[in-house]
Design a protein that fits this description.
This protein is an alpha/beta fold. The chain has a single domain (2-164), classed as Flavodoxin domain (Rossmann fold), CATH 3.40.50. 37% of the residues lie in helices and 20% in strands. Strands 1, 2, 3, 4, 5 and 6 form a six-stranded parallel β-sheet that branches.
Length: 167
């Protein structure tokens, strides 16, 4: 299986998750993990699976991820299996700050909701393999919460199983 994991990362947490996903997918195929600034059109051909991730910043994906996805030609991902992920604060932390909880409900997260990663992938023709996934950080700069790298590997193994068993 040919897979590409594209990510953006401000403090390195999303990069760690992307690498864990790439490592788990890489055990069974040809996988590249690329920072969004390194992605070229040639990277998006002959893929079986495209995974895109971003930290949640101001309730959205980073500008670089959003721009890259919006600039893809219409229907350029037609029929391609896709998945989206983000890094974020855990629900327990969000609930402690009433205003933050309100805004999360209103605007969502980087991987979810209108004009976010999953929606942009779908608009370009991508077929979501699984619901978008969020991985937790302990603060604005992190670190990742305990167990999140293992959870990312497990999520990637689920993606691989689904992608490799569908026509």
């Amino acid at each position: 299986m040919n897979a590409l994991v594209i990510y953006d990362s401000q403090y390195g947490n999303t990069e760690k998750i992307a690498m864990a996903i790439g490592d788990a997918l890489g055990t069974s195929g040809d996988v590249q993990v690329l920072h969004v600034e390194l992605v070229k059109p040639m990277h998006l051909v002959e893929l079986d699976l495209l995974v895109v991730g971003s930290p949640t910043q101001s309730f959205h994906a980073t500008t670089a991820i959003t721009k890259m996805l919006k600039e893809l030609p219409a229907k350029s991902l037609m029929g391609l299996k896709t998945a989206a992920f983000d890094t974020r604060f855990p629900e327990s932390e969000i609930k402690k700050i009433r205003a933050l909880s309100f805004f999360v409900r209103l605007w969502g997260r980087a991987a979810f909701a209108d004009k976010h990663i999953a929606d942009l992938l779908k608009k370009k023709g991508g077929e979501a393999m699984v619901p978008s996934e969020g991985f937790y950080v302990g603060g604005i700069e992190g670190p990742l919460m305990e167990g999140e790298l293992e959870r990312a590997r497990n999520w990637a193994q689920q993606l691989y199983a689904l992608a490799s068993h569908q026509p």
